[in-house]
Amino acid sequence: MATLLVRKLEPELVELLKRQAASHGRSVEAEHRAILRAALQPKLDDKELFEMLREGETWPGDIEPDGWRRDDRGEPADI
Question: Which among 17, 64, 70, 79 is most buried, taking Cβ atoms within 10 Å?
Fold first, then answer.
């Protein structure tokens, strides 16, 4: 695995990262990795995901399934 060093971060940004990590129950490093992964992963729209699953491919490991569950108001479902 590679190591990434980010310099010259504003203290406010670091504090926000710490708070977000705590709210997700992760370390700051794990939260940083999750943010980078989410920002850089290819995005699939609903139709692309449906077609992929219909063709027998497995659920993509880098896509959070809860983000695709919606209730009848179009909001993320509270499961």
Answer: 17
